[in-house]
Amino acid sequence: MKSQFRVVIGSDEAGFAYKKVLKADLEADPRVSSVIDVAVGDDADKTAYPSIGVAAAEKVVAGEADRGLLLCGTGLGVAISANKVKGIRAVTAHDAYSVERGVLSNNAQVLCMGQRVIGRELTRKLTDEWLKHEFDPSSASVAKVGAITSYEDTDSCD
Q1: What does the DSSP 8-state code read for residue 116?
Q2: Most-buried pick from 8, 19, 70, 104 (CB within 10 A)?
Q3: Main EC class of this protein (predicted)?
Q4: pLDDT of the residue at 155
Q5: What span, in angstroms and rounded, lies between the C-alpha atoms of 127 and 107?
Q6: How far apart are CA 137 and CA 45, in angstroms?
Q7: Has this prediction a pTM greater than 0.90?
């Protein structure tokens, strides 16, 4: 198990309040070695969520971060945006089982959540849960994740 993660965190204005709380939690977590913030400057900054999702995903693909945590109103827009970056598997999850399976079954590097969908304390709990899991490269899910990567690389799935 990896001892520490480098995490990129981002949000648009609709996820900014939760981003501030989660960033502080991540910075205090011994499982996190560093936090890169690509979020808007404040909740009045209207930078669109696609810019934030792509910026965070690019940090993961470039090897500057191991994982990404993204927030917007629903968690859907940032996930769609992050998934446009080749090599990224971003999931929106609002329950512990989906967070777990996102990592263990799908090797998702990016977790997305919605500030308008779930409560602040649940996002904190799910972020903690997310840091507990790491994809097992010997699991039965490797072939399925490989099929995703193959499709992304060749535009066809076997």
Answers
A1: T
A2: 70
A3: isomerase
A4: 60
A5: 16
A6: 40
A7: yes
Q: What is the C-alpha to C-alpha distance for residues 1 and 33, in angstroms, rounded to an integer?
A: 14
Query: Mean pLDDT across the chain, nearest whole number?
Result: 94
Token digits of residue 18: 């939760």
Beta bridge partners of 68: 8, 110
pLDDT tens, position by position, 91-126 = 999 999 999 999 999 999 999 999 999 999 999 999
Q: How many CB atoms lie within 10 A of CB 128?
A: 16
* Cα–Cα distance for residue pair 55/37, rounded to 1 Å: 10
Closest CA to 19 of 87, 132, 111, 88: 111
Q: Report the catalytic residues.
A: 72
Compute, in degrees rounded to 10, the torsion defined by CA atoms 137, 90, 22, 10.
Answer: 130
User: What pLDDT, on the 0 to 100 scale, is given for residue 143?
Assistant: 87
- How is residue 95 written in tokens? 């329950």
Could you give the strand order of the β-sheet that contains 110-114, starting from the edge strand earlier in sequence? Answer: 32-37, 5-11, 67-72, 110-114, 90-92
Find tokens 């066809």 and name the residue: 156
pLDDT digits (tens, 9 = 90+) for 60-81: 999 999 999 999 999 999 999 9
Strand duo 110-114 + 67-72: pairing: parallel
